[in-house]
Design goal:
The structure holds two protein chains of two kinds.
Chain A lengths: L1 H45 L2 E5 L5 E5 L3 H6 L2 H33 L8 H9 L6 H12 L4 H8 L13 H29 L3 H9 L4 H29 L3 H6 L7 E2 L7 E2 L4 H12 L2 H33 L1
Antiparallel strand pairs in A: 1-2, 3-4
Chain B lengths: L1 H34 L3 E4 L2 E4 L1 E6 L3 H9 L3 E5 L2 E4 L2 E7 L6 H11 L12 E5 L3 H5 L14 H4 L5 H5 L17 E7 H8 L4 H7 L3 H13 L12 H6 L6 E2 L2 E2 L3 H16 L25 E5 H6 L15 E4 L5 E2 L3 E5 L6 H13 L1 H11 L6 H9 L14 H10 L9 H17 L4 H15 L12
Parallel strand pairs in B: 3-6, 3-7
Antiparallel strand pairs in B: 1-2, 4-5, 5-6, 7-14, 8-11, 8-12, 8-13, 9-10
Classes of the chains: A mainly alpha, B alpha+beta.
Chain lengths: 320, 465
């Protein structure tokens, strides 16, 4: 008898205490349901419809099955993914290399870099500027009337009628440099946190054994840093797939200059997936094809992240 | 430390509670508001209490503040005409934001409170039909204006732009924007041996002469025009077909003429290889150090876009002059429309009459804001006035040439899709001019842009000419 009352009171108090936990969780779940999950379901639903507003304010909405998806799996959309990927990779490779180098310098006690706090702040600063402002500044600096244009002209690299923004290569490199400048500070700080988490005794032991700095970096720092690297890689990849603001502002939404790349016809070579999505939505409210594109994007992001994760984790197991 | 945390959390909680209450408070207020009648007595009879005006910049506001009798400014976004509050809803034009804001407001028009409804909105020529054709704007007859009688002094093209397919005129403008060729007198003197308006006109009287003159300019190290699309509107305004007919996109022969000319000009070095408004050299011709012979534009272009007040500019030196050029055309302009569902018809009629049809007000407008106003007698009077001269043009009186041009403008082929088609076509063709793609590929890219922008249109029949 007394035992049951006991358990009852315990149950009661536990629920009583847990209640507060649930109450505190409510705001998150409500916002998530209303502002994330519901729009997500709607996006998927509308992706099976032809749904847009005409220039004359008429709303068109009819079920169209997989038509939107068929249109997406055309060469044109592959092109958008290609453009996005190229812009991302040109920026990401130097970003991860420079960040690794800086992080290992900053975290290295033996180097004793002076005023490292100052430098850490400085390299992070570009991230605080709005991407749009950054894009605009770059655009103007490399326009024919801009200071950097004149600098390159005076150095003899280019002639007066060259146009940075009329060539695919130069435009891509400049846009990727903006992304590099904006994000390498952030990556450095993440990697540095990872390196500083490594037990010092490992480095000391390696040095006692006569390992060179490079060996220490390759055999100790890198393997232990792998989880952080995976994280940096996945977040950067997701950010890269969603690339929008800088190319949008620099090409005024058009994604030009046009180029052939590995394809047969010449098309806008700077246009990214999200730029296309935004163009579909902004004037004609084309929730049908924009919805289908979002769904494909969601799946692609998922698959890529999974692959990156798998490859990193798998190699890790082999090493052991 | 603990005390500080407690204090902070108390402050935060208080802030939350207060903001909640504040929100409730304003709700109550608005409830009280709606109990009051939405209409007030004015000198025009019973009218809505609030006049909501939608526009994209300060242009119309400045003119109303300055010239409309009885308008008193309250603050930057509100004014008063008698008992009616004037509310300015200004959304800048960038990236289509104005049209989006206006579209959303018009969509809510049926359900909105009388005080929140759009009463008056402003539009531009390039997308005028979008708001003229559907039932979102009132015909001028519906607000009590007899266009044939009340607006007889206006230039007819300004009425054609806002005419729907049934012949109703649904907007009115205080300005006309006939445009002309703006050339540099010192370069004309050096290359052509004369800077006289009539003699220079001989060198640019048609496109063949224009091209021959361009070659002469090139020989002396000058470029004839600045951008690829400086001449675009001259061609497109004189097209013989609309961009869109029965849901199909079509490209007029005159527009293909522009493509061929711009390509030739680019390849021969007759332009500076930049787009209109571009930062890649298009503006370089505004300075004395520039090498550009001519631009195309209306009165507002000279006064507001050519950096004429800046030291070292051609305008400051008074070295610009205008002449008719190869063909007449117009560029820009703002129209006032009454929104369907407004409760301020009488006041709107009065604003339209005073601001766009009253000769005295329009003469003042021309003198205060150097607009080319929409009133034929007023413009002819100013054209004949020897004391009127534009200092950026070395004292030239531009009204004569512009007024002559304004009479000749005909808008027979407009569509609601013009703005998007013009923009996307120029941007796609730029890649062809630069050599980044062929003409065929540029057309394909244009088609895709149109498909994204206007999914309802058919582009299948488009072919390169």
């Amino acid at each position: 008898m007394s035992e049951t009352t006991n358990t009852n009171t315990i149950k009661h108090t536990r629920l009583g205490r847990n209640k507060w936990g649930y109450i505190f969780l409510v705001p998150f779940f409500v916002t998530f349901l209303v502002f994330s999950l519901w729009p997500l379901i709607q996006t998927i639903y509308f992706s099976f419809f032809t749904k847009y507003t005409t220039q004359m304010f008429e709303e068109v909405e009819e079920f169209c099955g997989l038509k939107n998806y068929k249109e997406i799996f055309s060469a044109d959309t592959m092109r958008l993914f290609f453009n996005t990927f190229v812009l991302w990779i040109i920026g990401f490779v130097p970003q991860i290399l420079v960040s690794l180098l800086l992080a290992s310098w900053f975290a290295n006690n033996r180097l004793r870099i002076r005023a490292s706090g100052f430098f850490k702040t400085v390299i992070y600063l570009p991230n605080l500027i709005m991407a749009i402002a950054f894009g605009m500044i770059f655009y103007l600096m490399f326009a024919r009337s801009g200071p950097l244009f004149h600098l390159f002209e005076n150095l003899g690299f280019i002639t007066g009628d060259y146009d940075f923004w009329a060539h695919v290569g130069s435009t891509r490199i400049l846009i990727s440099s903006i992304n590099f400048l904006m994000w390498f500070g952030n990556t450095t700080i993440l990697l540095m946190a990872g390196i500083m988490g490594i037990n010092d005794s490992l480095f000391e032991a390696a040095e006692v054994d006569g390992a060179s700095q490079f060996q220490v970096f390759r055999k100790i720092t890198l393997p232990i840093l792998k989880p952080i690297l995976v994280y940096v890689m996945i977040t950067s990849l997701i950010g890269g797939i969603q690339m929008f603001d800088v190319p949008q502002i620099i090409t005024k939404g058009m994604g030009n200059p046009a180029g052939r790349d590995i394809f047969k016809t010449s098309q806008p070579a700077i246009k990214t997936v999200i730029m296309q999505l935004s163009a579909s939505i902004s004037k004609s409210n084309n929730y049908g094809s924009a919805g289908a594109l979002s769904v494909v994007l969601l799946i692609v992001t998922g698959i890529l992240s999974f692959f990156v994760y798998l490859s990193m984790v798998h190699r890790d197991d082999n090493d052991k | 430390m603990k005390k500080v945390t407690k204090f902070l959390s108390l402050v935060l909680v208080l802030a939350m509670v207060v903001s909640c209450l504040a929100a409730c408070g304003s709700k109550n207020e608005s409830k009280n508001d709606s109990k009051e009648p939405a209409a007030v007595k004015t000198e025009f009879g019973e009218q809505g209490k609030v006049l909501n005006i939608y526009c994209w910049n300060e242009e119309f506001k400045q003119r109303l503040e300055e010239l409309y009798p009885g308008y008193s400014k309250v603050d930057d976004a509100t004014g008063k005409i008698g008992d009616v509050t004037v509310k300015w809803n200004i959304t800048p034009n960038e990236n289509n934001a104005y049209q989006q804001a206006l579209d959303n407001a018009l969509k809510q028009q049926g359900n909105a409170n009388a005080d929140d409804k759009v009463d008056l909105f402003l539009i531009e020529a390039d997308y005028a039909l979008k708001y003229v054709e559907p039932n979102v704007s009132l015909a001028l007859a519906e607000v009590g204006i007899d266009v044939a009688k009340d607006f007889k002094n206006q230039y007819t093209y300004t009425q054609d732009i806002v005419k729907d397919s049934k012949g109703n005129i649904k907007g009115t403008s205080w300005q006309g924007c006939p445009a002309a060729l703006i050339y540099r007198t010192d370069i004309a003197e050096e290359v052509l041996g004369t800077s006289d308006v009539d003699k220079v006109q001989e060198y640019v009287k048609d496109w063949a002469s224009f091209e021959a003159t361009a070659a002469k300019m090139k020989e002396k190290g000058y470029t004839m025009v600045a951008g690829f699309d400086d001449t675009y509107r001259v061609f497109s305004n004189n097209a013989k077909s609309a961009w869109v007919k029965d849901g199909k996109v079509q490209i007029d022969d005159r527009i293909w003429e522009w493509v061929d000319q711009a390509k030739k000009f680019t390849d021969n070095g007759y332009n500076v290889k930049d787009s209109l408004w571009g930062d890649n050299g298009w503006k370089s011709g505004f300075d004395m150090s520039g090498k550009v012979f001519c631009y195309f534009g209306p009165a507002w272009f000279i006064d507001f876009c050519m950096n004429c007040s800046e030291p070292g500019s051609v305008g400051e030196a008074g070295k610009w002059h205008i002449t008719v050029g190869p063909e007449g055309y117009f560029w820009g302009g703002t129209w006032i429309c009454a929104a369907a569902g407004t409760d301020n018809e009488v006041l709107i009629k009065d604003i339209m009459m005073k601001m766009t049809a009253d000769t005295d007000t329009l003469v003042k407008l021309a003198q205060t804001f150097s607009d080319f106003v929409n009133d034929q007698p007023a413009m002819e009077k100013l054209a004949a006035d020897n004391t009127v001269g534009n200092k950026y043009l070395g004292g030239q009186n531009i009204y004569g040439i512009l007024a002559e041009g304004a009479k000749k403008i005909h808008i027979d082929y407009a569509s609601a899709y013009d703005q998007g088609c013009n923009e996307k076509f120029q941007a796609a063709m730029k890649e062809y001019f630069l050599g980044n793609c062929t003409k065929e590929e540029a057309l394909e890219n244009f088609k895709k842009e149109i498909k994204t922008l206007y999914p309802e249109l058919n582009t299948d029949d488009l072919k390169v000419k």
